[in-house]
């Protein structure tokens, strides 16, 4: 369907133009194009002059003009809505491009943070290995045996410490002075990009665990906003100890829950710890025990037990290494 011509635009007048304005506009246009038609033979100019004549005839007829104005306004409204929709599309496109740029910047920042974390971890491992090597050489220069390398995640405790930068401005020496009385620090590195954070490598996982568990109770550690494992998860030895302790607690709870369950006939416990014929006599359970053992032990007790076992495991490991060194030295002298 051929689009209807815009007669107001053709005559260069407004839709509110009077009859006199229409006649004057037609006279100017017709005079202009009549001159062209006299001197130039052009089909396009002839078509244009014919359209001017149609525009004058239609707009000077009140009935035809009224019908044309309705169609003209509807057409203008559609054009307006189309422009608004195009504007919304352009806005949506701009918003999409903006979000893509933000996502790229966030990805770049994430990659930079990851690279910085890996660099800090490598620095901590390198410094820790260097210090351990120096200690090893100074204490056992004649021994051909070298201490096996320890993995920072499984054998040594690495923590990520954060504090409020606006409130505290800690230097490396400040952090060492704060942490060394609580646990022995092996090496420390302040974050270069994110102010108010540091990566700390302790001599052993026991030291790191000790700092982590005292965060809420120790006055010095309360200055830190958060303390967590550098790798985002606890070392394997801590996970094993925690899992073992949970299994023991579940076993104790299941044991005493079964022991105290009353029978339907007598209403008494199925097994009594005071009976000499009880199956649970081998556990040496006191006869005056009331309630579940798990409910009487506090969280601090469990943490103390776990810490003791971890320290004992560390001492056993050191003794085993020393014993192996002595055997190697004796074999070398023989």
From TrEMBL:
Keywords for this protein: Chaperone, Cytoplasm, Membrane, Nucleus, Transmembrane, Transmembrane helix
Basic and acidic residues composition-biased segments: 83-115
Any one Gene Ontology molecular-function term assigned to this protein's record: nucleic acid binding
Record's keyword annotation contains Nucleus: yes
TM helices/strands, residue ranges: 33-52
GO biological process annotation, one example: spliceosomal complex disassembly
Domain J: 6-72
One Pfam family here: DnaJ
Assigned GO CC terms: cytoplasm; spliceosomal complex
Protein name per UniProt: J domain-containing protein
Gene field: PARPA_09573.1 scaffold 36923
């Amino acid at each position: 369907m051929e689009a209807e011509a815009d007669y107001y635009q053709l005559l260069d007048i407004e839709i509110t133009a009077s009859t006199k304005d229409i006649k004057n506009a037609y006279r100017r246009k017709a005079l202009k194009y009549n001159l062209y038609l006299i001197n130039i033979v052009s089909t396009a100019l002839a078509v244009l002059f014919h359209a001017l004549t149609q525009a004058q005839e239609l707009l000077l007829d009140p009935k035809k003009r009224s019908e044309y104005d309705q169609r003209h306004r509807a057409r203008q409204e559609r054009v307006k809505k189309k422009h608004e929709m195009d504007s919304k599309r352009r806005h949506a496109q701009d918003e999409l491009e903006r979000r893509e740029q933000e996502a790229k910047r966030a990805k770049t920042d994430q990659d930079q943070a990851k690279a910085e974390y890996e660099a800090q971890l490598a620095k901590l491992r390198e410094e820790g290995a260097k210090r351990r090597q120096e200690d090893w050489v100074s204490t056992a220069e004649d021994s051909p045996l070298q201490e096996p390398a320890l993995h920072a995640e499984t054998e040594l405790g690495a923590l990520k410490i954060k504090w409020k930068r606006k409130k505290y401005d800690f230097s490396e020496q400040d952090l060492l002075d704060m942490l060394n009385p609580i646990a022995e620090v092996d090496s420390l590195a302040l974050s270069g990009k994110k102010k108010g954070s540091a990566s700390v490598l302790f001599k052993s996982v026991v030291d790191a665990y000790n700092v982590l568990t005292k965060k809420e109770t120790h006055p010095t550690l309360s200055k830190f906003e958060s303390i967590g494992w550098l790798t985002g998860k606890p070392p394997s030895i801590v996970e094993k100890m925690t899992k073992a302790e949970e299994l023991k607690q579940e076993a104790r709870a299941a044991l005493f829950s079964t022991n105290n369950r009353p029978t339907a006939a007598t209403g008494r416990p199925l097994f009594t710890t005071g009976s000499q014929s009880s199956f649970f006599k081998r556990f040496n359970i006191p006869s005056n025990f009331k309630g579940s053992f798990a409910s009487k032990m506090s969280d601090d007790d469990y943490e103390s037990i776990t810490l003791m076992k971890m320290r004992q495991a560390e001492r056993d490991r050191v003794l085993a290494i020393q014993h192996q060194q002595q055997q190697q030295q004796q074999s070398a002298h023989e």
